[in-house]
Amino acid sequence: MFPWKFQRFLLFPILPLLTISALLATTLSASAKPNILIITADNLGYGDLKIYNPDSPILAPNLERLAAEGTVLTDFYTASPTCTVSRACLLTGRIPQHHGLQHQLVGVEENYGPMLNKKEILISQAVKPAGYTTACFGKWNVGFAPGYRPTERGFDEFLGNVSGNIDYYTHIYGGHHDLYRGTEEAYLNGYSTDLFADAAATFIRKHEGQPWLCYLPFNAPHFPNAKNKALGQPVIWQAPVEAFERYGCDPGTRDEVERYRAVVTALDDAIGRVLQALDETGQADNTFLFFMSDNGAFMLPGRGLEVSTNAPLRDGGVTCWEGGIRVAALARWPGQIPAGAKVSAPLWSPDLLAACATLAGTKMPEDRVMDGKNPLPVLTGETNQSPHDTLLFTYKNHAALRKGDWKIVRTQPEDSWQLFNLAEDVSESKDRSGEHPEKVKELAEAFSEWDKGFTE
Asked: Where would you tag: which of 222, 239, 279, 293 has the fewest CB atoms within 10 A of its CB?
């Protein structure tokens, strides 16, 4: 399956990552370095896809194709259950307590401010020493002050929105036009999902024959928000007419369930065009592709947001229940990652920077704590053991820690830890803390060790 040197590396996942990078630099220099395509959805529900929930009525054939041609990750986590912080963790390979951006950016002022620390090394910068051309197309949401913009942080190209859930057609956020190419405002007509996908497809075709990294963070299927609408404009989910036609429903329907399904299908269609660019240029086999949702769907009854589902997980976005942090994720690299397989070993979003550096054959930063670990041995099937002993999650008052099949969680700092066995109870319906106080103590001590490290 692999060149023999790569096989040898994967059989010894305990080697230090710097040694691994040195091995790969030698191995990959003799052949084309793989392209890297990282696609994120925005608030997609774990149970919205048939891949995880066979009863889902949502049409997503391209994501299902990726699942068939690659590997489904059943226990993949975002390091934060909210958009801004999740993106910062993916980009830096570090959890919020280490990269410092621990809150959701609100309003134009914050989104255009100096937010994600300029000292952080992003995935774009991690692969640059290996000669990669890089691009970001989509939702940035981690600060856009001079010096903090994508093209000033290792990305050669950028087309996207600075802020959060822009209107899909007018590209308005908080009364402010929010679409940029590079560092300049861009006035383009079109559905934002299509604009980002088409920019990525153009980039892929343009850079055939040279290694590239494309970060494609869609703003779909994020829920609509009244502050991003013109006066009198309905606050409804938006999708192209053809997406509604796929369901045989009227594009003017006010049924929010029907409208949400069309948004997800439009996202899937857009991903299909990106896959088509890979196929038509013959680059699919040499491209490591990773897809994930930035966090779980929001479960906020009464606001029209309960149209998606994280089933069978509990709750959703901005919580540390499984529905907020365990997300849909797929990985494809033909000939390297097994087709039609499932990975249940816990991995998380900071691992993607380690994967990028490993694939490019570059060194990981040595002057800071890196929370991501190389996931390739797990993704390729060389091992079924997670590189992580524990995974820690915090957001506002919520906190959780997973170790093996066990997880502790609390919703207030003063609360006692609840304990769940995820192998037996993925829905977190039965608190086992009273039955296993020694397990609570073990995981609570592990949480304290993480916490202690943040203050040292």
From this structure: 279
Share above pLDDT 90 across residues of the chain, in percent, rounded to a whole number: 89
Q: At what angle do helices 17-29 and 351-360 cross, to 10 degrees?
A: 40
User: How far is Cα 318 from Cα 447, in angstroms, rounded to an integer?
Assistant: 19
Q: What is the pLDDT of residues 145-195, one digit of tens each?
A: 999 999 999 999 999 999 999 999 999 999 999 999 999 999 999 999 999
**Cross-strand partners of 177:** 172
Q: In the block, which residue shows the tokens 């050669």?
A: 156
Is the pTM for the entire model greater than 0.90?
A: yes
Confirm if 161 and 178 have CB atoms less than 8 A apart: yes
**Two structure tokens written together for 326:** 């365990």
**234 and 255 co-located in one domain:** yes
Cα distances (angstroms) measured from residue 304 to each of 161, 257, 258, 296, 356: 24, 9, 12, 16, 38
Q: Counting every residue, how long is the chain?
A: 456
**CA of residue 32 relative to chain centroid, distance:** 26
| Paired residues of 400 in beta bridges | 393, 409
HEC letters along 351-409: HHHHHHHHHHCCCCCCCCCCCCCCCHHHHCCCCCCCCCCCEEEEECCEEEEEECCEEEE
Per the listing, tokens 């068939």 go with 68
Split into its structural domains, the chain has a count of 2
Q: What percent of the chain has pLDDT over 70?
A: 91
Asked whether the predicted pLDDT for residue 24 surpasses 60, the reply is no
Alpha helices in 191-292 (DSSP H): 192-206, 241-245, 256-280
pLDDT higher than 70, residue 13: no
Residue 125 and residue 274 in one domain? yes
Residue 305: pLDDT over 90:
no
Please say which residue of 370, 388, 406 terminates a domain.
Answer: 388
Q: Are residues 373 and 420 in the same domain?
A: no
DSSP assignment of 120-146, as one string? Answer: SPPHHHHHGGGT-EEEEEEE--S--ST
